[in-house]
Specification:
Radius of gyration: 23 Å
Order of helices and strands: HEEEH
Mean pLDDT: 88
Low-confidence stretches: none
Shape: elongated
Helix content: 25-40%
CATH class of the largest domain: Alpha Beta
Strand order of the largest sheet: 1-2-3
């Protein structure tokens, strides 16, 4: 998503007008559908609701985000998990280990009394 220097940065003027002269802490979430808009230093501290195709995801802008795009912080795909037999076996072993650890901790607590 590079942009040439002669074109300038991609800022949404309407978005900047919405936050102009306002206090970031007292301003409610500013909804936007413009995911390609770059984050400017004036936007630091504000909370934006960036649309991901289904809902608005809250994005609190910090100084580290300046120069990035709003859409980078609002994922459009939801990762569930990789599945299969191996994954089920790993999860079951992990659960058994947690149970054994909890039993050992309760037994140690009972011995101290």
């Amino acid at each position: 998503m590079t942009r040439s220097i002669k074109k300038g940065i991609n800022l949404d003027e309407r978005l900047l007008k919405k936050i102009a002269g306002k206090n970031p802490l007292q301003t409610p979430m500013v909804k936007t559908w413009n995911r390609a808009c770059q984050i400017a230093p004036e936007m630091v501290g504000f909370t934006f609701g960036v649309y991901n195709g289904k809902s608005h995801i809250e994005v609190l802008v910090s100084e580290d985000m300046v120069g990035h795009r709003l859409g980078e912080f609002s994922p459009t795909r939801k990762f569930i998990k990789h599945g299969g037999k191996m994954q089920k076996e790993l999860e079951q072993k992990k659960k058994e280990a947690e149970i054994a650890q909890a039993k050992a901790a309760t037994a140690a607590a009972a011995d101290k009394k």
